[in-house]
Write a structure and sequence with these properties.
The protein has 341 residues and is of the alpha/beta class. The chain is 55% helix and 12% strand. Strands 1-9-8-7-6-5-2-3-4 form a nine-stranded mixed sheet. Strand 6, helix 5 and strand 7 form a beta-alpha-beta unit. It starts with 6 loop residues before the first strand and ends with a helix.
Length: 341
C-alpha cells in the first residue's frame, strides 16, 4: 500500500512568503482568471501574461489586473504559473518563458503533463512546482469569494532554492486551497491519475455509460425524452448525493428498489473485461502512448483532424438533440450557458 500523503492546511502555509514577489499568470481562461483574481484579493502582486490580440486582454484589465505579453510578464515575474492548454505550453514556454527565466524563479503548473512527459525541461536553477485545483476555475473563484476553498494538489518537481514546497504552499493558500486542504503528490502521480480519471471514469466512462443507457431504452421503443431523464438528467442528482455523503449517503437517500438494483446490476455492467480495458487505458497513459497520440493530433501536421471528427460525431448523438430540447424546459436554464460563454 502506498504511503499516505500529507495534507496541508492554513496553519501550515505562510502567505507572507509571497510578499515582494511578482506573480505572472500565463493565460486567463477558466483557471487563469480564478488564480489571478484570488491572488489579487489576497494582496499579492499579480500580473497576467497573454498573447497579443487575446480576447481575454481587455477582460483581465477590466477586472483590475495589469496585462502584458507572456514574454514580458515572465521577464518581470519571480513566480510564473502556466495556465494555458497542455498542447500549447511547450511552444509558448520555449518562445516566451525560457529566455526570461532567471535563477531562483519558480515555474508553476496546474497539471503535470508537460513536465512529466519531458516536453518542458526547465533549467536546474529554478524551482518547479504544482498547485492543481480539483475543481473548474469558476468554482475556485466562487468558493474563495464565499470564504471557503477548493481542495488542491501540491507537488515539487525541482527544488533549486530549498524553499520550493513552502513557496508552493503559500501560493496554494493565497488562492484558497489551504482552506480545504492541499494534498501532497508528485507530477507523475497527478498526471497519470488525472488523465486516467478523465478518460476511464469522469468524462469518457460516464458519458459513454449514459449514452449507452439512452440508446438501449430508445432501441427498445421508449420515448427518447423518458430515456434522457432516466439515464442522463438524473445523473446529477446521484453524483450530488455521492459528492455530499459518499456512496453510503447516496444509497441511504434512494429507494430500497434502487439500492437493490444497484448492488446486483453494477457488477454486470462493470465486468472483468471493463477492468481489463481500464488497465490498458492506464498503461497507455503511463508509457506515453496517449500523450504521443494526443500531441500528434494537436500538432500542425495532425491538424486536429481526428479530434474534430470525434467532437463532431459526439455532437451528433441523438441524446444531444433531445437534451437541448429538455433543458429549455428547466426554470434554471440559461440557454446552455456553459457553451455560450
Amino acid at each position: 500500500m502506498a504511503q499516505q500523503a500529507r495534507i496541508f492546511y492554513q496553519q501550515d502555509c505562510n502567505v507572507s512568503l509571497l510578499e515582494g514577489k511578482k506573480i505572472a499568470i500565463i493565460g486567463y481562461g477558466s483557471q487563469g482568471h480564478a488564480h489571478a483574481l484570488n491572488l489579487k484579493d489576497s494582496g499579492c502582486d499579480v500580473i497576467v501574461g497573454l498573447y497579443e490580440g487575446s480576447k481575454s486582454w481587455k477582460k483581465a484589465e477590466d477586472q483590475g489586473l495589469k496585462v502584458y505579453t507572456a514574454a514580458e510578464a515572465a521577464k518581470q515575474a519571480d513566480i510564473i504559473m502556466i495556465l494555458i492548454n497542455d498542447e500549447k505550453q511547450k511552444a509558448m514556454y520555449e518562445k516566451d518563458i525560457a529566455p526570461n527565466l532567471k535563477a531562483g524563479d519558480m515555474l508553476m503548473f496546474a497539471h503535470g503533463f508537460n513536465i512529466h512527459y519531458g516536453l518542458i525541461v526547465p533549467p536546474k536553477d529554478v524551482d518547479v512546482t504544482m498547485i492543481a485545483p480539483k475543481a473548474p476555475g469558476h468554482t475556485v473563484r466562487s468558493e474563495y469569494q464565499a470564504g471557503k476553498g477548493t481542495p488542491m494538489l501540491v507537488a515539487v518537481q525541482q527544488d533549486a532554492t530549498g524553499k520550493a514546497l513552502d513557496m508552493a504552499l503559500a501560493y496554494g493558500a493565497a488562492i484558497g486551497g489551504a482552506r480545504a486542504g492541499l494534498l501532497e503528490t508528485t507530477f507523475r502521480t497527478e498526471t497519470e491519475t488525472d488523465l486516467f480519471g478523465e478518460q476511464a471514469v469522469l468524462c469518457g466512462g460516464v458519458c459513454a455509460l449514459m449514452q449507452a443507457g439512452f440508446d438501449t431504452l430508445c432501441e427498445a421503443g421508449y420515448d427518447p425524452r423518458n430515456a434522457y431523464f432516466e439515464c442522463i438528467h438524473e445523473m446529477k442528482l446521484i453524483v450530488d448525493l455521492i459528492y455530499q455523503s459518499g456512496f453510503a449517503g447516496m444509497r441511504y437517500s434512494i429507494s430500497n428498489t434502487a439500492e437493490y438494483g444497484d448492488y446486483i446490476t453494477g457488477p454486470k455492467i462493470i465486468t472483468e473485461d471493463t477492468k481489463k480495458a481500464m488497465r490498458q487505458i492506464l498503461s497507455d497513459i503511463q508509457d506515453g502512448t496517449f500523450a504521443k497520440d494526443f500531441l500528434l493530433d494537436m500538432s500542425p501536421a495532425g491538424g486536429q483532424v481526428h479530434f474534430k471528427m470525434l467532437r463532431q460525431k459526439a455532437a451528433e448523438h441523438p441524446s444531444e438533440k433531445v437534451g437541448a430540447e429538455i433543458r429549455k424546459l428547466y426554470s434554471w436554464s440559461d440557454d446552455d450557458k456553459l457553451i455560450n460563454n
